[in-house]
Each structure stands twice: as C-alpha cells, then as structure tokens.
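Summary for the steering committee. One of the milestones for this cycle was to obtain a three-dimensional model of the protein with pyridoxal-5'-phosphate bound, which we needed before selecting residues for the alanine scan. The sequence and ligand used are listed below.
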Amino acid sequence: MNTLNKSALPDENGYFGEYGGQIIPPELKQVMDEICRAYLDIKDTREFQDELQDLYTHYVGRPSPVFLARRLTEKLGGARILFKREDLNHTGAHKINHCLGEALLAKFMGKTKVLAETGAGQHGVALATACALVGIDCEIHMGEIDIKKEHPNVTKMKILGCKLVPVSRGTKTLKDAVDSAFEEYLRDPANFFYAIGSVVGPHPFPMMVRDFQSVVGREARQQCLDEYGRLPDIVTACVGGGSNAIGLFTGFLDDESVQLIGVEPGGKGLDTPYHAATLSKGVKGSIHGFECYNLQDEKGEPLPVHSIASGLDYPGVGPQHCHLKDIGRVSYVSINDQECLEAFMTLSRTEGLIPALESAHAVAHVMKIAGTMDREKIILINLSGRGDKDADFVAETLNL
Ligand SMILES: *Cc1c(COP(=O)(O)O)cnc(C)c1O
C-alpha cells in the first residue's frame, strides 16, 4: 500500500470510497490480482524505478517545464497563468508517461504481448511507441470507421511496428474495439497484458496509471515553489477518463490552500444528450469492470457520448475522481464545444501554443475565471497535449 500521504488510496480491494473495485468474473479477478501483486512488488525496486526514471529523463524529455503565459495573463487581466507543458513530451502528450510504465511492467512480468484498443489513435500511438522502445509485441484494436478518420495515427502505429487489428463489427468504432481487444486478451491473460489508457478499468489500473502520471504533479509542485516561491491557488486540468488530471492533482491533494478543478466535456450542452460530462450528469453504476459515475440508459447500458475532443468522450470516469467529487476536494465544471474552440484559437494566437482540443477545455474554464481573480493569484493548467492532431479539423470547422 502507498502510505506516503493521508489521501493514499485505494484500499486493498481497489476502492476509492464507494468507487473502483473489480466488477469482473472470478477468472479475471485472479489475473488482475496477480498484476496488482506484481506491480506492488516491482514498483519500488531500484531496477524498475531507475529504468522508468531514466526513460522519463532521456526519452520523454522530463521534467516538462512550467511556462508563465504573460500575454494570456495580460489579456484576461487577473491571476497569473502557468502551463505545465506535457505537450512537449515525446509523442506530444501526457499519455507516454503511463504507457511507458505499463510496457515496462509487462516486460518485467515476462508477458509476451501488450494489447489495447484505441479510438482516435492517441493511446494506440503512445503505447506502440512505448512497446517499440521496451521491445515487446504490441497489438492494437481499432474500429474501421476510426481507421478511416484517423489516418496519421494509423500510419504511425504501422511504422512503429504494432499489429493493427481493424474491427468491422457493430459500430465499427471504439465501443466494439474494446470488446474485440478484450476477447483477444481473454485467450491468454496469463501471457498477455491489457494496457488501459486512463485511470479507469478494474483495480489495479486506476491506481497504477495514477501512480505513473503522478510525476506530473510532483514536478509541477516543486517547480512552482522553486520558480514562484509559492504554491498555485488553483490547479486545473481536463477530465476524460481522468489520467492527466489525477496526475497533476496528486501533487497537490494534501495542500489545503490549493483549489482543484476538473473540466469535463460539455459537448453541445448539458441539457442535450450530446456531451460526456460524467461527473456533472452521471449516476453511480458500473462500467468496464469498475464502479464510477457514468452516463447510462434505463437498462444500465453506456450511453453514446459526444465531445469535440475525441480523447474526452468516455461514458465513465476514473473512480478516484468520483471520490474526490463526493468528499468535495475537487470541483468539476464543464465547457462546451464552442468555448473549447474559442480557447483553442485564443491560446494559439496569444502564446503561439496550439493546444490539444482536450487541453483547450481547461484553458476555456480559466478564461472564464482568471479575470475575476487578484493579480497576485496563480492558476496552473495542465497542457496535456499539443494540437497538431486537431489543426486540420479546427481550420475546417472555423473556415480558416
Ligand atoms: C487522451 C487525452 C486526454 C484525456 O485523457 P485523460 O485520461 O482524461 O487525461 C487529455 N488530453 C490529451 C492531450 C489526450 O491525448
């Protein structure tokens, strides 16, 4: 168990308060328990820590800097705005932090193949990258419709040498890619490793992915102290499954003076069915092997969700976020597609930073509140990824 601080969770059954756990058949529970034991055995060993730290430093390019956005601060006329630059990581986002951890763990456990599904291809590319580096086979399942839509990511995965499995059943998108990848995993769970792409899924994944991402918050807290002599007043990040947010928040959970805000995708509006604001509008239930707030129909089936940012459109959310909402430690707000686009353009044109549409959600919320705050205050935003992948779409949408 992680006994570093008083917020240390989950408990030994993988629960964060009422959320998380392992809502899975007994055979699979055995496999998850084995992964959990292996992780707890390996994670604090010198060998694993040294290798992961070395890769973070020399491969990913950590620590990522904290950047003071002077022109954006001036434009909004209030609190100073800092960005934690996860967009500068190799492969352009925070996902490489946990994909490297997972690939390395799979290798340490002697697994023969790492498996995953991908929607827009971001998780697929980060995982294929990590597997190429670590030297382990990688197989990614992806819906045929997504394969057509996400050409650059598909090409990258092929170049990186992973086996790409097109999924032609059902919706031909993420939902069926999950089922397809999972069926393959169940053929030989003793030798395969299913690499989950966020702080979701059965225990131990929400804990492991959180631990791998917590490097972001540890660095950012120290950088704020070293460079600004104090902690930020507000720390904020976008929330899809919740990995970039929990990674940053973990560094500040015990700092009571620091207000934490998660920003969910409001899509076309919370009063329409076209959003993915799980924490704002969801109900308690289970999805994909764990308990959390989720968006579901009367029969308990996951609802189709929408966000302009494909990395945020998931009908569930990490169990730790659900707990942090319930205990009031983190507040969760939402930003709609239009506000996201405006923030995307504003950040690009005031700072020369083209953000991922996912990250632009957090920027949009800060654009609403910074001007109401004192100039002495500091807001820290996780710039979870760069927006190259979104540039063509935005240009088309806005007729640029
Ligand atoms: C995937 C992705 C997200 C959403 O995932 P979380 O697990 O919620 O962090 C956010 N930002 C970027 C850039 C992504 O690629």
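Key point for the committee: The chain is about 45% helix and 20% strand.
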